[in-house]
Sequence to fold (471 residues):
Amino acid sequence: MNRHFSSLAILMLLSACAVRGGPDLDQSTIPAAPDAWAARPDLQVTANGPGQPSAFTQNGWVREFGDARLTDAIGEAFANNRNLQSVLAQLRAARAAMRVSRADLFPRIDLSGSATDAENSATVYNGELAASWEVDIWGRNLSLARAGNADTRAAAADYAAARQALAAAVTQAWYDRSAAGISLDLATDDLDRRKDTRRITDARFRAGLASRLDVRLAQVAVSNSEDRLEAAKRTARNAARALEVLTGRYPSGDATGANDLIALNALPSLAAPVSVLAGRPDLIAAEARVDAAGLRATDARHAMFPQLTLQFNATTQSGRIGDLFDPGTYIDAITGGLLQPLFRGGALLAEAERQGEQARSALFTYAQLALTAFQEVEDRIDAEATLERQVTATATAAEEARTAVGLTRSRYINGRSTIFDLINAQTTAIAAETRAIEARRARIENRVNLHLAMGDEPLPAGPLQLAAGSQ
Fold:
C-alpha cells in the first residue's frame, strides 16, 4: 500500500513540475470607464446596472419615434429575418454543445451483444456491459463544462446584439425609405418648375424677348431634372426593397416607410459610461469568451496531471437471447486505473501555452472592443449637437432658396433677370432642399446609432429574455 502511494506521489510531483501555471491575464488592459462622456460633460448621466435602462429608454428606444407602424415592422423583422434566425440557431447549437461538455462529468455506460450460430451447434448469445468514469480530481471536466456555459452566455449575447442591430437597421431603412419618398416628391416638383421655366422662355421667345440660346438652356434644365427624377425613383424603390428584405419579405419595392422625417427631441440624459461595459451585448459576449478561454487554459494545464479512471465490465454467454437483458447472468468486475502523462513530445505543454495565449488574445479583444464602444458613443454624442445645428441651418437655407426662386421667376418674367439667374436659383434651391432632407435623415440615423452604441433595448421585451425562451 505504501509503495503504491509513493508511486502516486512521484507521478503527481512530476506533473506539477511540468506545469508553468495559468495565463497571466493583465486586467489593467481593460480601459477604465470615466464618470461622464467627454463629448458632452454637461449632459446628465445615470449609473445603471446591467439590464437596467435609463428613464429615457426604459420602455424601448423605438417609442421615441412614436410610430406604431415602425414598431410593427421591427416585430416582423424579429419574426422573419433569416440572419437573425441563423444567429438563434447558433445559440441553440451552443446550448447543445454546453450539454455535451457536461457529459464527461457523468459515467459512460454501453451495452453490446453478438450471436454465434455455428453449423450443427446451438446459437450462443454474448453480451457485454461496460461503464467507465473519469474521477475529476483536478476539476478538468468541470472547467470544460463551465467553458461551455460561458460559450452559451456569449452566444446569447450575440443573439441580443443581432436583435439590437436588426432593430436599428429596420429603423434606418424605415426613414431611408421616407427620405427617398420626400426626395422623389422634391424631384417631381423641381421638374414642374423647370417645365414652367421652359414654358415662360418659349413665350418670351415667341414675343422676341428671349434668344434661341435661352430656349435651349431651359430645355437642358428640364432634361437634367428628368434625369434627377428617374434617379430618385430608383433610389426610392431600392430603399423599399432594403426594408422588405430586412423584414423577411420579397423585395418587390412596394414598402413604405415613415410619413415624414420626425424632428427629434434633445437628449435629456444618458447612461454613464460604466453602464455601456455592463450592458452592451457585444461586450458581454466578449467577456464571456474571456472566461471560456481562461477555463480551457486551466483544463489544458491540468491535462498534465494524473487521470484516475474507474471501469466496470460485465459479460454473459447464454443460449437464450433474453439472458442478455437479465443483470443476474452477468459476471462483473470493477477496475481502476491511473494514467500519468510523462512524455508526449511536448504536446501537452504546447497545448497549455496555446490555450494561455488564446485567453490573453480574448482579453485584448475585449479591451479593444470596450475602447471602440466608448468611441462609438462619444462620436454619436458629439454628432447630436452638430446635426441639430445642421438641421436648422439647412432648413433655413432651403426656405430662403425656395423664396429666391419665386423672386427670380418674377424678375425673369418682367425681363429684369436672365435665364441664367433663374436656372441657377432653381439649381441652388433643389440642392439646398436635398441637403435639408439629408440632414434630417442623418440626425435620425445618428440617434439610432447612439442607442445601438449604448446597447439600449429597442422594445420593452429585452433580447436576452427572448433568447432564453423558445421561438
